[in-house]
């Protein structure tokens, strides 16, 4: 095989990236696969015994795994939809202010600057049944306060906390998409007798469609794999009520010492996300083909 | 009868007066061109008529009805924008159907009108395409189609050809003129290009700093410019201006002679000079001549230049084509 100088140069320039991927991705991936197929604890980490797919069977038969999956899915979908809905509404309503006074953007971005685990810890204090200021004042003013962190309410408390922290992210994406719609397009629509409502639904939202899909996707992924703020706020929660998939993996790894099962669960999570991504890609290709045919 | 009347219309942005009080009447079926350099307020004036900007004072009426406070959609006007402003997520058909859909026109009648407009503009083959799949000229035609389907009282064009290359600009210019003959509707057209203004307009409105310098037919503007600004703006190459003693001798502050009215003469001429450079355009040539007191003059001659750089030549103005202006730039007649 002959290769042109350009090809040789390309390979040379690619080499560091390939080395990086081998060192930082394939080594952990290899270890992951071996552990997932082995009986392994902290004591036997250097000498895993291959046991085939037993770990996967154990994980799939574990009701806690399915509960954690359900929690993560519900949490991911709900927070993604609420964050994007709020972010979109804010981006549209605040755009006259934000585009005129750029500094207000920094104000809106503030929640994103706080580390999620800190957010978890902060709300743990603020909402604490005995020590927290919020339950204290609610009891003082209304005579009663909901138990924010008990098994019934913890899920919704977490949803609100997540939404408060990450709506600004969705807002930022939508703000950029909204202001990048040319003014002349809105003016043309106004000349065409479209009302403000019609302009929003028929012109602006369709033009922001790609951004909306991306924002929903990113926020779903972030919500689905949620760990730090949930861990800081409620841990696995009362009776495992707030055990996300990440927390399930963490707990069976570090607390249960069942490394094989924990890694098997993570492999399952990886496979599930691959299926979802592949499905989305196929769906998009089909839609594109249908559009081209039309 | 005037169809669109501007009565004392003015526009102020903050402390900046863009258009001082201005009066203008536009007749039914007229093709009026607003022309002027950038910053002359021509686009602002068009946007005031369209209703995309609010007036700071004065009255705008269309067909005898005061529309000063009427929102832009309800003035019965259609606008073609410089950037075309097509809806990128819609097909050509959907783009052209949009204004009809907004007024609740029936599906059948919408389809018929879109097909008609597409036929007129030669867009039938492209109806299912998206704007991104079209060339600049095709996009411009879609924008015009979107305006036509509404059957508006008047069409407003905001520098519609300035994003096209020169060849396409020429052919689109003809298409718009043909469209005007076909539809016989009022058109207001904004441009900074005096060639577009001269070739297309029934009447030209020359604007400078928001003030109307002159309104008239292309011929009037060319033959009897009201002032130095109009005289220099209309015609290419620009009118030669000569000041000082030569102008004073003719009882003016400045005199103007168009390049086509200067002749290179054998023997004694009015002015002597040396050729600086020549521009050969094929059908005509522009000769730049440095003449002592008269300054630098441009002569337009048919065909290839008969002189070359460095030649000493004599120039004479054609009889009766010298324009005289006073110290304010006003024409002296």
TrEMBL record, chain A:
One cellular-component annotation, GO: plasma membrane
GO biological process: transmembrane transport
CDD domains documented for this protein: TM_PBP2
ABC transmembrane type-1 domain boundaries: 69-280
Gene3D superfamilies referenced in this protein's UniProt entry, alphabetically: MetI-like
SUPFAM superfamilies associated with the record: MetI-like (SSF161098)
Segments traversing the membrane: 12-37, 65-93, 105-126, 154-178, 230-250, 262-283
Major localization listed first in the record, in broad terms: membrane
Keywords carried by this UniProt record: Cell membrane, Membrane, Transmembrane, Transmembrane helix, Transport
Cell location: Cell membrane
Record's bilayer topology term: Multi-pass membrane protein
Protein name: Sugar ABC transporter permease
TrEMBL record, chain B:
Family annotation (Gene3D superfamilies): 2.40.50.100, Nucleic acid-binding proteins (2.40.50.140), P-loop containing nucleotide triphosphate hydrolases (3.40.50.300)
All copies of domain ABC transporter, residue ranges: 4-234
Keyword Transport attributed: yes
Compartment list: Cell inner membrane
Membrane topology annotation: Peripheral membrane protein
SUPFAM superfamilies (alphabetical): MOP-like, P-loop containing nucleoside triphosphate hydrolases
Domain of life, per lineage: Bacteria
Protein name: ABC transporter ATP-binding protein
Naturally occurring in which organism (per UniProt): Aliirhizobium smilacinae
